[in-house]
UBX domain-containing protein (Bombyx mori), 652 residues
Amino acid sequence: MAENREEILANFQGITAIEDVAEAIYHLDESNWDLLTAINRVMPQDQNAAAADAQDDTHNVEMIDDDISVITPKTHPPDREDNNQASTSSINRNSTNGFVELQINWNNKMYGIKINGTATVSDLKKHLELISGVPSCRQLISGLGGSKAVPSATLGSLGLVKNAVVRLKSADQQMVADDDVAERLTTTYTLHIKHNDRDYTLKYPGTKSVREVKNDIYSLTDIPARHQSWTGWPSVSGLDDTVLAMVGLDLPQHELTVKRAPAKPLKEYKRIALRTEDNTIIVESSDSENSSVEEVEDTGFTGEDDMFVDIANSERLQPLMSENVEDEALGCIEFASRFRARYGPNIPNFFEGTLQDAIKESCLKPAKERKLLGVYLHHEQSVLSNVFCAQLLGSDAVLQTLSANFVIYGWDLTHPNNNNLLLTSVATALGSVASMTIQSIPVDRLPALVIIMRVRSNTEIYSVINGNVGVSELVGGLVEALERFAIQRDEDARLERERDARQRVKLEQDEAYMRSLEADRAKEEIKKQQEIEKNLELERAESERQMEEAKKEALRSEAAARVPAEPGAGSREVARIRVRLPPPHHDCIERRFNADDTLAALLDFLASKGYPQENYKVISSWPRRDLTVESHNSTLKSLKLCPQETVMLEER
């Protein structure tokens, strides 16, 4: 199958002129290695249609080895169209006069050869070696018939078409091409994307498709892929389905810019929505010149009562929040005031303060006093905003539920700066996951009510109720959250009671411990005094030891100063004294003296090495005698320690 795929790849590249092996493999993989399907995939549709219309006159498609299709030109004259099949069969086969005609593709050049049909594949390789200079053992040939093209097979037995395209490559070239494709597919590409005043630096593997990148940008910019307008992508056919490795990106970083595609300008309008008995909403739009009425399907409201909402021109309404709000608390106060002015007194009691303060007021109190936190997210550009505010939030059932069990925090997301301020506040108070959850809510689903509760010592988002619901669905969502909240609040209250009981027991234990501690302090003081006295005694002993060591060191220094210099190599009478050290050392030290040096010089030398005569005896080997009792003024020569002698040290 691998050899068949090589032949398919060679024919595909020869027909489509695609030089990039990775790109050719990509198209063949997408077409399940069907050659005709892959060709139709990459060639322009109008060209394919023209080719299909003229197929009977210009081309013939013949299947080789059940896996490979080769397109070859027809050569029969127009006056013999009735015998197309017979003439095509006789012309397409390489059996003319017993010779085989081939087109060799080597280094992007075509070479036509004509060879006897009785020649073997091995003979063909020798011929190709003369053309390309590539030894037979290093040749990679595709298009000869797959597994049938063994070295001993004759070319006439392979069933080759006339002028069949045979692709020749060197094994070294194949290795380099495969390594290049593998390297590009495993490369990490860095995309620097500009959107308005924000920059994003994203890293993707080479196997990531452009469509997946655009979908990721949707989650960051809230611009659907179909509405994205890009600059910076290379010109590639079928860009969205192409992996990054095949696009031709700049390294180490590729610059891109994305923006929302321009929309058609909207005229000022008034819209009236009316629910009829058959649950159809009639929308009437009007301006200064004309008006129109249309019916749309009701997909967002399921209440039983008819609803009638008169929405005034948005330019006549004061925004619920000013642009570029810098103080979060002042922004909430302004939102509550303008919300009440627009929708009247039947509205929730919005919290006037920061989101962090709202979380403390609702979720961080003791379990018995705890409430749910509802974050109302408003957007002026959503057609659902006015209906949701006037009808759903103004419903008595909703207001009673919110007033008894919720702390309501409101914010307007219309202006980007205000949107970013809220996302920053949410990320600081609840974490990045909560911020991404709010950021991912599309504008057409706003307004939204985000329900936040305390769960297992964590404050997190429980649910999001979008604006395309009815009163019953909104109440149902609130009741469901309340039931879950009640269970968790009872569990937290039980845990708090158990914690308080543990704290009382701990307090009693602490008091008993303090009493026992006071009773033991006297013993500790005595023990501490004894430790101090012991430490003083140790310090005194250490001081005496150090003084003794200093005294010994001084004696060693004095003895070393009295030791005469060691005689040079040219001295005539020299006494070489070898001293065996006492156990556990069992080592020896050796020193050369002048024969006229006294015994005192030898004893001073040993004292300088840490063996004073007060602690050690110096014993000569033969006859055995203690030299320390001899006259110290005696020369080494008179003591018969010359020219060499071995003495031993013994502890006294």
Summary: The chain has 17 helices and 23 strands. The two ends are 96 Å apart (CA to CA).
